[in-house]
Amino acid sequence: MALSKKPVTGMKDILPAEMQIRDYVIGVIKETYAQFGFTGIETPCVENIANLSNKQGGENEKLIFRILKRGEKLNLEKAETEADLVDGGLRYDLTVPLVRFYSNNGANLPSPFKALQIGPVWRADRPQRGRYRQFYQCDIDILGEPSNLAEIELILATTTTLGKLGFKGFEIRINERRILKAMAAYSGFAEESYDLVFITLDKMDKIGLEGVEKELKESGFEAGAVEKYLGLFKGMEAAEDSFGWLLGEIGAYLEEGIGENLKEIITSVEAVKQADFKMVFDPTLVRGMSYYTGTIFEIAIPEFGGSCGGGGRYDKMVGNFTGKDTPACGFSIGFERIVLLLLENGFQIPGAGKRYVYLVEKGMPADRLCEIMREAQQAREKGEQVLVARMNKNKKFQKEQLTQEGYEEFREFYCNPL
Predict the structure, then answer these.
(1) Position 80 confidence tier, pLDDT thresholds 50, 70, 90
(2) Nearest-CA neighbor of 96 among 297, 381, 289, 341?
(3) Cα separations in angstroms, 198 against 201, 210, 221, 243, 308
(4) Are 145 and 332 a contacting pair, CB within 8 Å?
(5) Residues 6+ apart with CB under 8 A from 220
(6) For the segment 112-160, what is each residue's pLDDT rounded down to a tens digit?
(7) How far apart are CA 213 and CA 224, in angstroms?
(8) How far is the C-alpha of 185 from the C-alpha of 229, rounded, in Å?
(9) Can you tell me the distance from the alpha carbon of 415 to that of 250, in angstroms, rounded to the nearest whole number?
(10) What burial letters (b/e) apply to 193-216, b meaning 16+ CB within 10 Å?
């Protein structure tokens, strides 16, 4: 079989210029989140397959990279089901591993626990712009905090980070899973059909109100329920205070205090935010993960035209491991998409010192080479970045390549200087 020099489909090599920006972004993320009291953790890339396929990961559970059993445990001849072949999988997000981590180590962690986790995840997805099969996620989560202080802190930490990276005019779209359920109940949908209704609603930005109506009716829902449901969205469009109007319509189906809780999150964030962004209530926001139990939110950056991160509250998930529910809320920044936008916009790392290249002619005497190396070392001690390299025959092309890598000044050293 011929060897392939290309990466596996959906994965990519990262060249030095991008790697520098990735390292810078991770540095900003870590520094900013630390200022908000988040502490770093790390979990394995591989999780028990039962943890990954517990019907809480939504569509992502269809995208798991499964791992075969090893050694004597793998018996292909006697295998009858997938369970006979597979016992693990590559994690598709960082939330499931975090919850397992917290369930296993909670006795040794403070309460509330503010976690920061950065690492690769894998999904057997269809590759496209800003979407890969291996990609980095950067998550912050607060476990053990039942109040909306968790949502407020998560949104402020994430938006402050985006502001430091130069993003402006973006939106944090916010909704509540219990509001979604109340809207469905008000319209007359059966509770067991909510997930299908929400999956269709989630396509609103792509297929529009008419497309949602058509798809709901084709799914077999009664026309009356569909009309009543879509009437809520039409009513919000016409109302001056869309959120207040909606709460007035569905109030009988909504738990007391949920609307006020969401208002408090929005007004609190708007009052103290540091970055240039808007909080926007979006009744069409669904989020695909079925483990969300309350507030949900997404980052919408105009230049990308799609979500650049999101999260929400998942108060029931820890209980699946421990038998005792623990309030939990998290926010994942879309690291790969953020880096993509920075690269496309020609982002330059601020405050970076000059980068020098010392080009040394081939055949340089040893004593002179030592002098050049000492000069380079002295420059490095002053905080400068110096690359010492042999001079190529095609010096012009060599300089062009190094300039593309961000090197600004060149010094040339010859065996017989004039």
Answers:
(1) low
(2) 289
(3) 5, 15, 13, 19, 20
(4) no
(5) none
(6) 999 999 999 999 988 887 788 999 999 999 999 999 999 999 999 999 9
(7) 11
(8) 9
(9) 83
(10) ebeebbebbeebeeeeeeebbebb
Report the candidate in 31, 49, 135, 35 with the shortest Cα–Cα distance to residue 87: 49
**What are 283-296's pLDDT values in tens digits?**
999 987 678 999 99
8 Å CB contact between 304 and 341: yes
Using CB atoms within 10 Å of the CB of residue 332, give its burial: 0 to 12 exposed, 13 to 18 middle, 19+ buried: buried
Q: Which sign does the torsion angle of CA 335, 321, 144, 295 carry?
A: positive
Residues 180/286, Cβ–Cβ less than 8 Å: yes
3-class secondary structure per residue, 260-319 = HHHHHHHHHHHHHCCCCEEEEECCCCCCCCCCCCCEEEEEEECCCCEEEEEEEECCCCCH
Task: Tell me which amino acid residue 309 is.
Answer: G
- Nearest by Cα to 158 from 309, 15, 26: 309
What are the Cα distances from residue 116, in Å, to 38, 70, 119, 288?
A: 6, 32, 10, 22
Hey, what are 344's tokens? 């496309």
Q: What is the largest CA-CA distance in the chain?
A: 91
The answer to whether 298 and 218 are in contact (CB under 8 A) is no
- Taking the mean position of all CA atoms in its chain, how far away is CA 294? 19
- Residues 231, 234, 238, 241: is their CA dihedral positive or negative? positive
**DSSP class of 128:** B
* Residue 88 CB contacts under 8 Å (≥ 6 apart), including other chains: 46, 47, 48, 49, 66, 67
pLDDT digits (tens, 9 = 90+) for 197-215: 998 998 888 899 899 999 9
Q: How far is Cα of residue 345 from the mean position of the Cα atoms in its chain?
A: 20
d(CA 286, CA 58): 12
Q: Please count the residues of the chain.
A: 418
DSSP 140-199: EEEES--STHHHHHHHHHHHHHHHHTT--SEEEEEEEHHHHHHHHHHHT--GGGHHHHHH
H helix or E strand, kind and range, residue 218? helix 204-218
Q: What Rg value do the Cα atoms of the chain yield, rounded?
A: 27
* Helix (H), strand (E) counts: the chain: 14, 14
On whether the CB atoms of residues 253 and 229 are closer than 8 A, the answer is: no
